[in-house]
Write a structure and sequence with these properties.
522 residues; four-stranded mixed β-sheet; 21 helices; alpha/beta; five-stranded parallel β-sheet; Rossmann fold; Ribosomal Protein S5, domain 2
Length: 522
């Protein structure tokens, strides 16, 4: 403080850390406090509201907190979930007063001498602009690990605590391969999987010791019944069910294996996730009718992926109307009221306009009066946070439309995601990069569906090399495209001449006229 005064340097009021959950924002703040020998006040923002019984009490809690921090200076106040108490002012009397109180403390008559405010949020866009301005230029993103090198750094930090318990076969690189398969992206989840792997191994050692101590057949039978899952894993690791081999197991000779990391990742995946995946796969048949394609969606964070069925039905002699029904009715389905997502209909309209123009220019058939109805089918329709984004679904809408018009069966072994525009381009979408790879998860973790191709925008392909490697490791061909026509031809494994012949034949049957494609325009 004395040096700062001599230099006329005004220290920052604080730091605003933002990023995905589990990236270490809280740990970083604690480390800063420890390094500077400062008192640390950890404040889950929601508690300021939950513990308040009277009007004005949340604001008083904030005033008292800053007063306490000044008394114990040097100190650090850490607000977790900062968006809860510093949200954008929208006319709500309670939240607006809280935001105003935060501004008062940051800019108030009492200076924040030797008191630093560190605030953390997963939703920077929810915080009031005036408060963000008070933290500038110290609004800092704490991102997920972006590259394999960064992920390996995180792994090594957590694995060194278990170094004495790891089998020689275990290496950070091998564990990383498992984490990538299950898309364990945040450092917090990585730590949990490593802990879980050790817990599973410890339970297996325990059951082995129980068997060694068992004196009677009855006790052995009881152990087999009580520890069925632990025994199954123990047998798998040892490669035998022989009692004498099990009795040789001890903490010293029974180490954490790659198998344990695989099982830990599976268990933490959660029963609900497996049920969702089973539900989505049960909806996909071995053969898809014409007009059906498989798209991909994610939750708002891009982490939980889902395979969607897109069905297109076209009707001649209509008014040119485009309709979208099913799971695509809402962008983010909340606990109260679905929010209509106009981007889905806009995307479908753009796709249909391109398809109509393509058919007219290439085949010579005017289908401007055709009505197109798209139905998006999802096992999670109506579940909070699992809506469908229109731009993300564009390529699947395009493929379904051309499949319907040409009478070509859909491909149950191909999934796709990409933005489609009125000019026939395929643009980038989310859910495929380091911030969130839910679409990659959905593709690699299918059980019954045997996927062969993953069609995506070239931009995503070029900017997500690690994610593309995951798909290839699972035997899935990655197909980057820039144009919708390019995607059609690859997915249906045909030339453009063959596609146009199919369109001419099928559309001719619909209108009762023999048609020929304009091959001279190819």
């Amino acid at each position: 403080t004395e040096l700062a005064s001599k230099l006329s340097w005004v220290p920052p009021k604080g730091f605003l850390l933002w990023g995905e959950p589990g990236c270490g924002k809280t740990y970083l703040s604690k480390a800063i406090a420890k390094e500077n020998d400062a008192a640390f006040f950890y404040i889950p923002a929601a508690q300021l509201l939950i513990n308040a019984k009277w009007v004005g009490e949340p604001e008083k809690n904030i005033r008292d907190l800053f007063g306490l921090a000044r008394r114990y200076a040097p100190s650090i106040i850490f607000f977790d979930e900062f968006d809860v108490i510093a949200g954008k002012r929208k006319g709500d009397p309670v939240s607006d007063r809280l935001t105003a109180q935060i501004l008062t403390e940051l800019d108030g008559l009492q200076p924040l001498e030797n008191v630093i405010v560190i605030a953390a949020t997963n939703r920077l866009e929810m915080i009031d602009e005036a408060i963000i301005n008070r933290f500038e230029p110290y609004v800092i993103e704490i991102p997920l690990p972006r590259t394999d090198a960064e992920r390996l750094d995180v792994l090594r930090v957590h694995m060194r605590h278990y170094a004495a318990h790891l089998h020689p076969e275990v290496s950070p690189e091998k564990v990383l391969a498992i984490l990538k398969k299950y898309r364990a992206v945040s450092p917090r989840v990585v730590a949990e999987i490593i802990k879980e792997a050790n817990r599973l191994r410890s339970q297996e050692v325990n059951v082995a010791l129980e068997i060694a101590r068992a004196q009677t057949p009855e006790r052995l039978a009881e152990i087999n019944s009580l520890y069925k899952e632990d025994l199954a894993r123990l047998h798998a690791v040892l490669g035998t069910t022989d009692i004498s081999a099990i009795k040789e197991v001890s903490p010293e000779n029974y180490k954490i294996r790659i198998y344990h990391f695989e099982k830990a990742a599976e268990q933490l995946e959660g029963e609900m996730e497996r049920e969702v995946m089973d539900a989505q796969e049960s909806m996909v048949y071995e053969r898809l009718d014409p007009g059906v394609s498989l798209g991909l969606a994610t939750d708002p964070q891009g982490r939980r992926g889902l395979i969607l069925i897109v069905e297109c039905v076209s009707k001649p002699k209509g008014t040119g109307k485009v309709t979208v029904t099913g799971a695509a009715k809402a962008a983010f389905v909340g606990a109260v009221t679905p929010v209509e997502d106009v981007s889905v209909l806009e995307s479908a309209t753009n796709i249909v306009e391109f398809v109509k123009r393509y058919v007219y220019e290439k085949v010579g058939v005017d289908i401007s009066n055709y009505d197109f109805t798209f139905q998006v089918i999802s096992p999670l329709e109506g579940v909070a946070g699992m809506g469908v984004s229109g731009p993300s679904l564009g390529l699947a809408l395009s493929v379904a439309a051309i499949s319907e018009l040409a009478g070509i069966e859909g491909r149950p072994d191909v999934v796709m995601s990409g933005k489609g525009d009125i000019k026939g381009n395929v643009g980038p979408v989310g859910g495929m990069g380091w911030r969130g790879s839910g679409k990659i998860i959905a593709a690699v973790q299918t059980r019954r569906i045997k996927l062969k191709k993953f069609v995506l925008p070239r931009w995503n392909y070029e900017h997500s090399p690690d994610e593309m490697a995951i798909l290839r490791e699972e035997g899935i061909e990655v197909v980057p495209v820039e144009r919708q026509v390019e995607a059609w031809l690859n997915i249906f494994s045909m030339t453009e001449e063959e596609l146009l012949a199919k369109l001419a034949s099928n559309l001719g049957e619909l209108i009762g006229v023999e048609m020929r494609p304009k091959l001279d325009m190819l």
